[in-house]
Amino acid sequence: MAANKENGDPVEMERLVEEPPSPTLPTVNPDVEASKPPGMVLPPWIYVVAWISFSSLVILFNKWVLVTLEFKYPVILTTYHLVFATVVTQVMARYTTMLDSRKAVKMTGRIYLRAVVPIGVFFSASLILSNVAYLYLSVSFIQMLKATTPMAVLLAGWALGVSQPTLKQAANVSVIVFGVIIASFGEIDFVLAGFIIQLGGVMFEALRLTMVQRLLSGDLKMDPLVSLYYFAPVCAALNAVIALLTEVPRCTMAQVLHVGLFTFFLNGLCAFMLNVSLVLLIGKTSAVVLTICGVLKDILLVVASMVLFGSQVTALQFFGYSIALGGMVYYKLGYEQIKGHLAEANRHWAAFGAEKPILRRISIVALAVFVGLALLGGVRHVM
């Protein structure tokens, strides 16, 4: 992994992406875990479930506030998330030991102005555009469009000289893009403005990741919470200026109270807990687990969007998105790792069948029914 960072490998950069419409900061040094006092040891699956839950909850929560509750001020919502994160990280830095690793960061005024502030600009733009897209597109379609992130990271890396293009990478990314194009053709509620806005958010995220990768060549070593400690104030200030110029004059207290102050508090808390769960997941598992969990989370979000918001996902979209997800997994892991993990999964599945054959049969039937209903629903929507 260290070799990936030194060479500016875009695969490693793309792995540092975190869930978009929430103030999740890059995992700059996932191999270094801050020393923690001994305590209760939890099984790894707890951290997996926590990260997937908070990551999905933040996205669905934002969609619910912006669309269902008709609080159509995505910049204000993003600014609130970042202010919430700023306040909490400042309190944690002063009264807890969870951010003590920041003392090892060689942060200077020059580095802050030349690295943190520009990255904060791109991060703010990415967050704002990602939230604005929810006003036009469904959660399921947005998750499909985010599959183009590897392509954007490669383009940004090539343009800024962080990485050199290879034919294999270009071919793999082309497969992902091809799948997303198919999924886009299958989208029923396609809105060009939302499509362009979301792709803009992906590109700004790719630029942010590329600049973070360049920052890795220095002495800065930060986990997600420490990154949030440094980046959140800059992003909050930038977003606040944009919000004051665009949305604050139109937003009324009645609209805020319609959503509810407690709802806003829970929304900000969920966004912050996403960062905490990411720290725990990285510290207790591995980059491979994070990659697989990311794909699983995207699939669950598509399903949740269909159930909660009535998003219509067609059979053509399922087909295209499957191609994109397959290409993304291959891009991140490679053939040998995929082969090894499939073999390991088969061994676990066989052991599960030997120990609990009835439960395995029930699982197969439930999965088959779910897939069948999803595909039939997609075909019905097309017709």
From TrEMBL:
Quaternary structure and interacting proteins, as annotated: Homooligomer.
PANTHER family hit by this protein: SOLUTE CARRIER FAMILY 35
Annotated region described as Disordered, given as residue ranges: 1-29
This protein's name: Sugar phosphate transporter domain-containing protein
Basic and acidic residues bias (residue ranges): 1-18
Gene Ontology cellular component annotations, sorted alphabetically: endoplasmic reticulum membrane
Domain of life: Eukaryota
Subcellular location: Endoplasmic reticulum membrane
Keyword DNA damage: no
Coiled-coil region list: none
Function: Involved in the import of GDP-mannose from the cytoplasm into the Golgi lumen.
Membrane topology, as annotated: Multi-pass membrane protein
Positions of the Sugar phosphate transporter domain: 46-331
Transmembrane segment boundaries: 45-66, 73-95, 115-137, 144-163, 175-204, 225-245, 257-281, 288-309, 315-333, 362-382
Keywords: Membrane, Transmembrane, Transmembrane helix
Species in which this protein is naturally found: Akanthomyces muscarius (Entomopathogenic fungus)
Record family assignment: Belongs to the TPT transporter family. SLC35D subfamily.
